[in-house]
Amino acid sequence: MTKTDQHSEKVALFRFTVISSLLPETAGTPEYRLELRRLIEKSWEIPGTNRTRVAPQTIRD
Fold this sequence. Notes:
Oligomer: single chain
Number of helices: 3
Radius of gyration: 13 Å
Helix content: 55-70%
């Protein structure tokens, strides 16, 4: 596996980790909004960047 492949896999796994707790059928519910807020406020170790936060729109997209 190349370094590019490894990085791509890390990014994909990170993205899945962020969105896995949000189910589409719960969108718009108080539980969904609470979980979204938790994810936005959490400090993340994002592969390939020094950023530690994920924007709400990024999570929704």
